[in-house]
Each structure stands twice: as C-alpha cells, then as structure tokens.
Design a protein that fits this description.
The complex is a heterodimer of chains A (about 120) and B (about 110). Chain A has about 120 residues and is mainly beta. Chain A is built from no helices and eleven strands. Chain B is globular, with a radius of gyration of 13 Å. Classes of the chains: A mainly beta (about 120), B mainly beta (about 110).
Chain lengths: ~120, ~110
C-alpha cells in the first residue's frame, strides 16, 4: 500500500531555532495536511494545503508556522523560531480528495523536541 | 474547534471478546466521522468511516454506529485480538471542510 513518508523521525532543536519538517505525500494525492500531537494528548489539526495554497488553518498555526510544496513531491512544515511548547509529534497526511470523500493517510510522524 | 471527546480513556478486554469504544461529539453540523487506530510510535491509521446519512457501517471485524440524536459514535471490534491493542481516535468533519477534528483517544488493551 502506498504510504506517506516523513523525515526526520526525530528532531532535537534549541529554543529559538528554525526547523523544517519534511513529508512526501502519496503521489496521486491532491490534499495535504499537518497535524500535531503533544505527548499523551489528542491529534490537533494545524493546516491543510491544496492547489499550492493553504486552504484551512487552525489557531495553532500562527505566523511562526509556514508550509511549502517546493518541488511537486515534498511538502514541508517550517517553524521559524521554536518554543518549548512546540515539542510534539508532527504528522503529515494526504488524501486524494477532501477528507469527507477520501480517507486521509498519515505518515509515521516526526518527533520534535525543543530544548 | 469542535468538541469531539471519548467517554472512557482506557479499555481492557480479553482476547476473543468484543470491544466497544465510544465517542461523543457536540457539533451538529458534523456529517462525516472516522475512526483511526494509532499504534505506539506510528501515525493514525484509518479504520472505518461513516457519513451522517447512515447509522451503521460494517467493515472487516469492525462496525461503526452513529446516533445523531444524541451525537454519539461507537466502534465495535469483534473477536478482539492482541494486534488490536492501540489507541483509538474518533474524528469528525463536515462536507466541504478540509480538516479533521480528533477526539481524545481510548487506549484499548487486549489481554491474551
């Protein structure tokens, strides 16, 4: 079965540093998402991306966050100046259609630790 | 965001028994619901979904029930196996929306 791949699996960064989390969605999918999960808590929506632009974003996704699809295959999440509270598991997902029509496939996640 | 939550944080069942995991939601506009399974160290994995025009949907060993009157969703797993041990999340969305709102999660432990 095709899968969403994320790199790195674990990223440790110092507070205030920029990080870029990378994702390769499933090749024929058109919709891309980032979610995060703080340890022991529920999965939270961050942003969705379609047709090279953000289609929806949550309150968590503030000016410190940005997403990009630089080359037609990768989908990245950038955090400009990391804070301790950004420590979480970040999941990339993709779907062929909108979530209500097509199921979203999630990657294995990147564990971000801000120290 | 929408309030999607679970009644029980943990559930332990004997191998071979049936499991029932519950979820409550508060947004009447939600019309699409999904159950995800998350194993340790992995991302959520789609199990089954249901639209609001249905009240029951069956998959392989799993059944999702939707009660729109009381805004309640459940996942039934038949003949639970050790491989079913995981955290189960319900998620909800609306037609045309481009996001999912997840519930808190229930940890299912299957006792051999």
């Amino acid at each position: 079965e095709p899968e969403v791949t994320q790199t790195p699996s674990h990223q440790v960064t110092q507070m205030g540093q920029e990080v870029i989390l990378r994702c390769v969605p499933i090749s024929n999918h058109l919709y891309f998402y980032w979610y995060r999960q703080i340890l022991g808590q529920k999965v939270e929506f961050l942003v969705s991306f379609y047709n090279n632009e953000i289609s929806e974003k949550s309150e968590i996704f503030d000016d410190q966050f940005s997403v990009e699809r630089p080359d037609g295959s990768n989908f990245t999440l950038k955090i400009r100046s990391t804070k301790l509270e950004d420590s979480a598991m970040y999941f990339c997902a993709s779907s062929e259609n909108l979530p209500t029509v097509g199921k979203a496939f999630f990657g294995q996640g990147t564990r971000l630790t801000v120290v | 965001g929408e309030n999607v939550g679970l009644h029980l944080p943990t559930l332990s069942v004997q191998e071979g028994d049936n499991s029932i995991i519950n979820c409550a939601y508060s947004n009447s506009a939600s019309d699409y619901f999904i159950w995800y399974k998350q194993e340790s160290g992995k991302g959520p994995q789609f199990i089954i979904d249901i639209r609001s025009n249905m009240d029951k949907r069956q998959g392989q060993r799993v059944t999702v029930l939707l009660n729109k009157t009381v805004k309640h969703l459940s996942l039934q797993i038949a003949a639970t196996q050790p491989g079913d041990s995981a955290v189960y999340f319900c998620a909800e969305s609306q037609t045309g929306a481009n996001n999912l709102f997840f519930g808190t999660g229930t940890r299912l432990t299957v006792i051999p």
